[in-house]
């Protein structure tokens, strides 16, 4: 097993927070290093302790989850957003602010643990039940997927290699690195390298943003 994944749980409801902490602390290879009852506490603890990720509720007092996510952008600490609603306007803002993933609070315990591990490995996570709806809303088309682009692709896409475009398409489908590696017949390490390079070329903060861009541009 790899290094321990260090997590901060930010949730204003004590009972919910305690349940999340219990689930994560009981999972092998995951350690909750701090708890926060609002966004200000979450940001302060994250900058002090430098965990691998913050499990962040959207609606919290003093500073909400989206503001806290924006404050942590560029800090090297990933944010995994938790919300009660599958189409919450705060979620779109959180993804734009650089959140690495988005989960519903009714997620099963094993799915929560897996999501934390995926994000810690550098892979984004959007609750499967709402991925398509979320992408459509993010792209500004709540009724139907975006129409095919008549114009030339953005210059950034032109900078991608054919293999990186293939990887971007797979990311847009929500595939993990392991699944991409199997589909393209490459190693998981090579897949990680391609993902890192395409994120840098496209100036994106997270894999989730890459997935949304792939859907918007019809790469998938």
From TrEMBL:
Please provide the Gene Ontology terms (biological process) for this protein: phosphorelay signal transduction system; regulation of DNA-templated transcription
Question: What Pfam families is this protein classified in?
Answer: GerE (PF00196), Response_reg (PF00072)
Q: Which residues form a coiled coil?
A: none
According to UniProt, the name of this protein is Two component transcriptional regulator, LuxR family
User: Key word Magnesium present in the record?
Assistant: no
Residues modified as 4-aspartylphosphate are: 57
Annotated Response regulatory domain residues: 6-120
Cite a single GO MF annotation. Answer: DNA binding
From which organism does this entry originate?
Answer: Marinactinospora thermotolerans DSM 45154
Lineage of source species = Bacteria, Bacillati, Actinomycetota, Actinomycetes, Streptosporangiales
Q: Does the keyword Transcription apply?
A: yes
> Which InterPro entries would you find in this protein's record?
CheY-like_superfamily, NreC/VraR/RcsB-like_REC, Sig_transdc_resp-reg_C-effctor, Sig_transdc_resp-reg_receiver, Tscrpt_reg_LuxR_C, WalR-like
Q: Which residues form the HTH luxR-type domain?
A: 153-218
Keywords, sorted A to Z: DNA-binding, Phosphoprotein, Transcription, Transcription regulation
């Amino acid at each position: 097993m790899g290094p321990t994944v260090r997590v901060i749980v930010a949730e204003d409801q004590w009972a919910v927070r305690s349940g999340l902490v219990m689930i994560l602390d009981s999972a092998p290879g995951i350690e909750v290093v701090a708890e926060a009852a609002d966004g200000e506490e979450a940001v302060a603890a994250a900058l002090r302790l430098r965990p691998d990720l913050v499990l962040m509720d959207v609606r919290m007092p003093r500073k909400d989850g989206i503001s806290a996510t924006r404050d942590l952008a560029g800090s090297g600490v990933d944010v995994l957003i938790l919300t009660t609603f599958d189409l919450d306007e705060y979620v779109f803002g959180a993804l734009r602010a650089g959140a690495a993933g988005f989960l519903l609070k009714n997620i099963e315990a094993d799915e929560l643990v897996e999501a934390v591990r995926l994000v810690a490995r550098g892979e984004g996570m959007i609750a499967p039940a709402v991925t398509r709806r979320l992408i459509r809303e993010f792209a500004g088309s709540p009724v139907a997927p975006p129409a095919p682009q008549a114009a030339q692709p953005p210059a950034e896409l032109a900078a991608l290699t054919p293999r990186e475009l293939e990887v971007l398409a797979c990311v847009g489908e929500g595939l993990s690195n392991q699944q991409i590696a199997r589909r393209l017949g490459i190693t998981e390490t090579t897949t990680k390298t391609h993902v890192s390079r395409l994120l840098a070329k496209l100036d994106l903060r997270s894999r989730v943003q890459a997935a949304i861009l792939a859907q918007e541009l019809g790469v998938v």
